[in-house]
Input
Amino acid sequence: MIVLFLLAIAAPLAGGPAEMLRLEKSADAMGSTYTVVIYGTDRVRMESAAELAFEEIYRLDNMLSNYKPTSECSQVNRNAAERSVAVSKELFDLLSTCLDYSRRSEGAFDITVGPLMKMWGFYKGAGRLPHRMEVKTALSKIGYQHVHLDPVQGTVRFDKAGVELDPGGIGKGYAVDRVVDVLRQNGVTTAFVSGSGSSMYGLGAPPTDPRGWSVAIRDPKNASRTVEQVYLKNESMSTSGNYEKFFRAEGRIYSHIMDPRTGFPAPGMLSVSIISPKTLDSEAWCKPYFINGKQWVKKHNQGFRAYFCEDRTDQQCAWLQ
Output
């Protein structure tokens, strides 16, 4: 379902500047809700750019979805353990970037984490506490080292059965970046693009605030409270929080942010927000920052601004110094 709003925010003056319009459009794809807000003066161009942006999201859904059996990603998951699978250059390059994230994060980011997410019940359910033997079995199918890319042939191969690609950790960020590219190519200079409110990009600055697009970082323990306000101007922000998907069992809270190396949800953090030039980077690095913690980030910082909310009795939220 697509929702479309078009509002005039300033009446034109005789002989003065053209009327400024605001266009907002939302649609569901790739398991997320994407929202695009555009400011401009040409209504037809704005509507056309928005339509092309969502066509791009639907195209990416057909490439990356691991729910659609016909998607390129699903075809790789079905066949790559048996033979090398030729893929598009776009998917090959994206997978290559993901393997680089894995190496640089010391395995905290892993595109093969899918079996763990399924076992913990976070794919379609509210979550469940597995037995340790189940965790051990799932871990045997996980590891970015099992994914082999051949740049000459443009193929993907898994070196063991049961390995799967799970684009959930990068899909929204990649889609947001692609939407921004489409908008730019179609003459849009002022826009805000959001994937389910957790990965977003501010293009230019809205007419109401030259500082950029105002975005709130929520209190992980209180959705009605803001712990920090930021302004995005030609940059992105992504947030990973333990409040997004979780369940309670045996007196503990288990979140969906998995450490692929242990097979269990990462402890010690409530949320991490990252600001970077590209949404793909901000979304992908949120997980390793969350999993590895502040001390690791201080040693291995990728040069991004990062805001941490730690899981302490005296909850502390602050920018990484």
The helical segments are 43-64, 72-79, 89-104, 114-119, 132-139, 171-185, 279-300. The longest helix spans residues 43-64.
